[in-house]
Amino acid sequence: MKITDDSPPVLTALDRPNSYIGRSVPRPNLQRLTQGRGQYISDVTLPRMGHVAFVRSPHPHARIVKISADAAKKAPGVIAVVTGPELAKVMTPWVGVLTHLKGLKSAPQSPIAVERACWQGEAVCAVVARTRAEAEDACELVEVRYEPLPAVTDPEVALDAKTPVIHASLGDNLCFERKLDVGAVDKAFAEADAVVETTFRFGRHTGVTNEPRAVVADWNEGEQRMTVYHGTQAPHMMQNLFAKHLAIAEHQVRVLTKDVGGSFGIKVHTYADEMATVALSKLLKRPVKFVADRIESFVTDIHARDHRIKAKIGVSKDGTITAFEIDDLTGIGPYSVYPRTSGIEANQVVNLTGGPYKCPNYRAQARVVFQNKNVMCQYRAVGHPIAVAVTEGLVELAAAKIGMDPLELRRRNLFPDDAYPTQSASGLKFELLSHHEALAHLDSMMNYAGLRAEQKKLREKGIYRGIGFASFIEVTNPSAAFYGVGGARITSMDGATVKLDAQGAIIVHTGVTEQGQGAEAVVAQCVASSFGVPIEKVRVITGDTDNTPYGGGTWASRAAGIGGEAAWQAGKALRANVLAVAASILQAKPDELDIRNGLVVNKDTGTERLPLDELARVAYFRPDTLPPGFQAELMATRHYVPRAWPFAFTNGIQGSYLEVDTDTGFVKLLKHWCVEDCGTIINPQLVDEQIRGGVVQGIGAALFEHCLYDERGQLLNGNMADYLVPMAMEMPDIECGHVVSPTADSELGAKGAGEAGTAGAPASVMNAINDALRPLGAKPLTDMPFTPDKILGALGKV
Amino acid sequence: MNDRTLEISLTVNGARVQERVEARKTLVDFLREDLALTGSHVGCEHGVCGACTVRVNGEIVRGCLMLAVQCDGATVDTIECLSDSGEVSDLQTAFEQRNALQCGYCTPGMITAAQDLLKRSKRVPSREEIREHLSGNYCRCTGYHAIVDAVEAVAQARAGARK
Prior knowledge:
The complex is a heterodimer of chains A (about 800) and B (about 160). Chain A is α+β, with helices and mostly antiparallel strands and about 800 residues long. Chain A is built from 19 helices and 32 strands. Chain B has two domains: about 1-80, Roll (Ubiquitin-like (UB roll)), CATH 3.10.20; about 85-160, [2Fe-2S]-binding domain (DNA polymerase, domain 1, Orthogonal Bundle), CATH 1.10.150.120. A five-stranded mixed beta sheet of chain B has the order 2-1-5-3-4, sandwiched between helices. At the A-B interface, helix 1 and helix 17 of A face helix 2, helix 3, helix 4, helix 5 and helix 6 of B.
């Protein structure tokens, strides 16, 4: 292991001549985006295309008594008005369960509500018209008679006997439950010198992708094929789902993604309105487009978090953590989201809590309940921000209680850097982590001692600054253990096909997708390095199920670690093929040759032997000059799937420095630091920007973002003026540092980096606020987001 | 529908445009749907996110808060024009080099807003001032740090070139 800031790591296996591994190469696809020449799905138009708008339930729970569509059907521009029962003839319903989450249950969900609407915003009728405006006009003319039903909104009472059951067929409102009891928890608490017990609350929030969800579906009756232009993270997963629920074969469905205006886990799920759009195209035999508007995004994009966790930590005088205990309750809306389910976040909270620490005593309970609010599912860093905030919140409260420095308490409990391989109390397997080295790096990067001195001095002047930390682990590079074993057709594998074109350039097709994180750049870097061409000679093609190798796409921080390794291996395979051609042309031995900087050279001396364009000319146009029986193979495909470990865990630590205005309750973020270890760093700049973007998403959760519902189940702030997101003015500069512990499961050694920022930022901000307010005797704040009124409440001022 | 439409003539990206538009149509929908200028994006549709930022008569405006009919007689510049004229080429290069964009959806609006700041500033704006000026442009991907870096670098380079 070694610490790197900007200098690329030296890695022998990857240290090929002209290697791009570890270099901050600009992404190849940026110019079209800076020029406004990207093509997002919301830009796509097709001949004969209709636009769909949905009539959505204003009730959180209601029986649909009657839909009168006569006036809407006669409105200008209207092509069709379609209800749930009519669309059910084209598309079958789905149920979001996974068999490895034992006991998880859900009810069938339809593209358009049939008989009952179960949350405010669920589509109950579709109007397709020539323009979106005409479709919306006609929606106003659709008369829906509802019989309101009692709405279940508060998770705390969802399981009470007198609470109505949302889906009678399920028997109760419990979606999923998990219990874990490891070590001797009661004994450990009894023997602890101090026990801290508190309740953490996490507000519902959502992804607010800048480009809303968008889909254009085009059923070609003549070809019997469905082409779906879809802003998705997982095209092959969607291909399977569209085919399955239209009852056609997968090869009859093509999914194309193009540019995607932000995803963060929002665009990796099955949305009823998108499924309806696809079904409408089949029904109407013409292209249909749906782009969610902002209110539709707020009431139908998956929400996340919304957990209430009662939590407890035991600690001895010397700072040893003796036990953790949590009780998690989360409400996930009326359906478990298909196909990844809505049980994963709570399951992750159980898995991850206490994860950085060697404490062997751990008890957890998680209950996931149905309610009549919008659905919840996996959003960036799934479960991590919750587990990290609970763990790190408890750690700092315990440190304060026994009067120990919070970094010192961590030093005494984090898994030692030489402990690996090892596993957590919950059973997570760690190949190689670097908690202590990361902590030491952060300590020096932020000049911790200096900040403490400054904090002390300013307190004397009535200025309250706080320093907070969060050590964390992060799930990356998931194997089939995540979804495949539970029966979902979501592949954990990814592939790359690499070909030499007739001018000596390299074309790569990859199964991972570009959501802006830089997957195309990383894939290009891997292929350019392992094959041996300048990166300008590599073109990467993503997001097309007709043309790319079958792959999982982009989620769970997998694109670089899994897609990158497949690309690396494919480049190597093509190099071997091309060297065979070169050897036959040059009458040399392949192992005496190499490809460097786009030229075939002598391996020992580096002397140029043959440019690739000349090799391609011979191989493609004068194969008659090659020896009899020799066939040039100028295309190679390789796949990769992690096998040795269920997940490639990463680790890191974040620090937050902020100032609380004790008169107004406003928090000013002064600086944020993150040291993380994602193994081999393929592109340092892209890793840092993933961290920074993730940190700010986590800060949003800590300070601003909250989907506010009233007790009847009505969303109160479904617009960007009332739902606050982080803007440039309130955000701090963010400094990043790295430790490098490669995974030995792949040659590349890269782990994921996409979610670390979001995982740790809320906890570190929370701890910094509590650190700032501690001398004032404020009750610790544990209810996110920490809005000014809550801060003033903790200070006893309101 | 005729009573709900109006004829407008305006200059868009240097070209004369004469169109009949619905009175209720926003400027950004007019640009995207009628003129196929898809570089301006629609994010929030009520003036918060800034993805639809364009220039009207030299001032940056929200394309979702202005109606197309209000632009009768106006001069409208979008990212396509700012880009092709070379006016923001240094900002574009800086954004690309600094990876100051990820999904790129906010970028045309962000660059248009940044150019507005740099055109107005007589000196190199501070990071705080850059953050303030861009605080009406929502970026979910970058966390803003890289954007501030890129704009700051261009401001310094332009100031250097003026000396």
